[in-house]
Specification:
Largest sheet: 3 strands, antiparallel
Radius of gyration: 15 Å
Strand order of the largest sheet: 1-2-3
Order of helices and strands: HHEEE
Number of strands: 3
Length: 64
């Protein structure tokens, strides 16, 4: 049972968010995985560990 709990915690989205990652979705609740999915003025919902924020997409920067 302890092994199963450990595995579940490892893959938990909440655990991932607590490490500083975010889940970004568009207004249709589709998860954004690439800047290619975005166009100017899209409204995005960003889920963080403490809650969520809504923002407007302005421009992209392809440089990492």
């Amino acid at each position: 049972l302890a092994n199963i709990i450990e595995i579940l915690e490892t893959v938990s989205p909440l655990k991932t968010l607590s490490r500083g990652y975010a889940i970004v979705q568009n207004q249709q609740k589709e998860t954004i995985r690439s800047i290619k999915q975005l166009k100017a003025d899209d409204i995005l919902l960003i889920q963080l560990s403490e809650g969520s924020i809504m923002c407007r997409y302005l421009e992209k920067n392809n440089k990492i």
